[in-house]
Amino acid sequence: MNTDKTPPILLEVIDLVAGYGPTEVLHKVSLNISSGQIVTLIGANGAGKTTTLRSIFGQTKIWKGSVKFLGEELVGQKAHKIARIGLAFVPQERSVFPTLSVRENLEMGGYQLSDRDVKERIEYITNFFPILKERVSQQAGTLSGGERRMLAIGRALMIKPKLLMLDEPSLGLAPKVVDLLFDRIQAIHKEDVTILIVEQNAKRALGIADHGYVLELGQIRFDGSGKSLLADPGVQAAYLGA
Ligand code: ATP
Fold it and tell me: In terms of pTM, does the model score above 0.90?
């Protein structure tokens, strides 16, 4: 009988060297995410956090290294294929189609699904984000910043991802909206979605994370449980405003 209760590794990034054009941004970045975790990646502006997410999602130039999702190599695969195997990415920029309605935006997220599944997922997601239910026929461009962020997350959830990657979801939002968003992120996690979150708001992200990684100049400098990083004097001084 197998008594090993360790959850399987969902995502494994091994010695990733990546960047843009001739510019190398990530210098041998390695990280692991186990199924069921919330993992956060923090670091200063320009450290390479967004580049890490983009690299996992096949949107940068990869020189060396490997990205394995459930054991399958992602390097060299196109983003739409990566999405199909259960990985969703909500980028930092407000990624909604402003002239389309909330419903149409969600439909776009589920373009690979059957009509029946699209209907079911929209029902599920709008129950999850009641404000989207109220605004389902409204043009996305007329939503508030927080509502748009929720729509972008809702759209990513259309494919029922196993891993959801969020790039600075709290950026530019009022504290109350950030509270609501973090509440929803934790609720999504409870629905069996593993989460990788990049945040400038390090205290907030480490507070909900099982594990955190600190990126400096394209390299992982520290990692540990969310709690241990919050208590680490070096992390406090550099990232938590202590
Ligand atoms: P921030 O918190 O400011 O978003 P970050 O840690 O996410 O920072 P990245 O956006 O990954 O950092 O940027 C890492 C480095 O890569 C920076 O020096 C940046 O100027 C560079 N960079 C980012 N995007 C591009 C691009 N499209 N082309 C060339 N260089 C880029």
Answer: yes
